[in-house]
Amino acid sequence: MPTNLAAVLPLTKQHTFAPRRQIILVDIENVVGGAVLTAAAANWARTQIENVLALNCDTQVIIGTSHVGYLETALAWPNKQYAVNSGPDGADLALIDEIDALRLERYDEIILVSGDGIFAEAVATLTGRGVDVTVVAHYGQCAGRLLMAASRTIYLQPDHNDGIASGVA
After folding, report:
1. Which of 32, 65, 72, 98 is most exposed by smallest CB count within 10 Å?
2. pLDDT band at residue 151 using 50, 70 and 90 as cut-offs
């Protein structure tokens, strides 16, 4: 008499591995070293970030910039979210507001692309809540407090002062 093994054997749970849900917050002015005044600067910053992070069309990215660099930034990074604020540390403060508004349960990892120390307190608060925070910055240009607060650090490629990145190129 033939037996149906599927009816006799216990079913095993099939494991599916979903990709980690990430959000990337980019301080584009920190990447280029000032206001983003040209398309070349905005495109260069995007390339630098894509060289060290695996981005795809589903990756949620929020880019902080001042009103001065908004157009060039939006042209280089279409279909992303932008946090725009002007004045001293305007883009940084806009990104901090975005961090404060995050629904942390939605993300497995938060990636901050900046070396500015202004983010140290926000990152320390996130890691203190058990959130995995990666900081991406230029080597030697990341605030010590931010390095200590982050779960890990990734460095951008060392050719960041090649003339294209400056806002005046």
Report:
1. 98
2. very high
Residue 53 to residue 45: CA distance in whole angstroms:
12
Comparing CA positions, the residue from 156, 140, 169 lying closest to residue 31 is: 156
pTM for this predicted structure: 0.83
CB 116 within 8 A of CB 136: no
Cα(125)–Cα(98) distance, integer angstroms: 14
Q: Which amino acid is at 119?
A: F
- The mean pLDDT value for 32-55 works out to 93
CA–CA separation, 72 and 148 (whole Å): 33
Phi, psi of 7 (to 5 degrees): -80, -25
**Among 65, 125, 59, residue whose Cα is nearest residue 94:** 65
Rounded Cα distance between 96 and 125, Å, is 12
Q: Are 18 and 153 in contact (CB under 8 A)?
A: no
**If we measure between CA atoms, which residue out of 34, 41, 42 comes closest to residue 141?**
34
Residues 6 or more apart whose CB falls under 8 angstroms from that of 88 comprise none
Q: How far apart are the first and last CA of the chain?
A: 81
Assess whether pLDDT exceeds 90 at residue 130.
yes
Distance CA 146, CA 85 (A): 22
